[in-house]
Write a structure and sequence with these properties.
single chain; 185 residues
Length: 185
């Protein structure tokens, strides 16, 4: 009889041990999955911030190169020089004024065409920002998705450096939490 009781207790202990082991295993798997998801979200967030930084740098370079006041004055000066040279070659009379406008118009048209071509070169940067922001924008966490969307909007709508920095700070706050976001900065 004692052998049967010992056998039943042993079988019960084995079943409880197997159940407990399975429970611990599932718990560890869920913890590992949560860590992996957090690491994936961190990588996605970093990819988005890098893409936004690249976009902002490319846009700033474009604006400084093609849209700055210095560039506009330089193009205007070249157009005036072209006009003056053509006007002088054609005799410097009032009648030659219209013909002398053509070279200066070509200078301005060339600047506009090149500026548009360079603006089109920003499209791949915008595409990288959108591609990097898509996984976070579709996240299960609505706060994370909203923060990612705010960063996308700030960057792609060219709301300025301050809006982008604020959106990045908001994304970090959502991801890390209020206390850790300030120490992660």
């Amino acid at each position: 009889m004692i052998e049967i009781v010992v056998g039943v207790i042993g079988a019960a202990a084995t079943l409880v041990g197997m159940w407990f082991g399975a429970w611990l295993s599932r718990r560890q798997q869920r913890a590992d999955a949560a860590v992996a998801e957090r690491e994936q979200r961190l990588a996605q967030m970093q990819a988005l911030v890098v893409a936004v930084s690249e976009m902002m740098t490319a846009r700033t370079l474009y604006e400084e190169t093609w849209l700055s006041r210095t560039t506009r004055w330089r193009v205007a000066g070249m157009a005036v020089i072209e006009f003056w040279a053509a006007w002088r070659v054609q005799g410097g009379r009032w009648e030659s004024t219209m013909a002398a406008l053509a070279p200066s118009a070509r200078v301005i048209e060339g600047w506009q065409r090149r500026s548009i071509e360079e603006a089109a070169a920003l499209a791949p940067y915008a595409a990288r920002v959108a591609a990097a922001g898509l996984p976070l924008g579709m996240a299960d966490d609505p706060e994370l998705a909203a923060a990612a969307q705010k960063l996308l909007d700030a960057c792609l709508e060219n709301q300025g450096e301050a809006a982008v920095q604020e959106a990045i700070a908001g994304l970090r706050t959502v991801f890390y939490g209020q206390d850790q976001a300030s120490s992660a900065s």
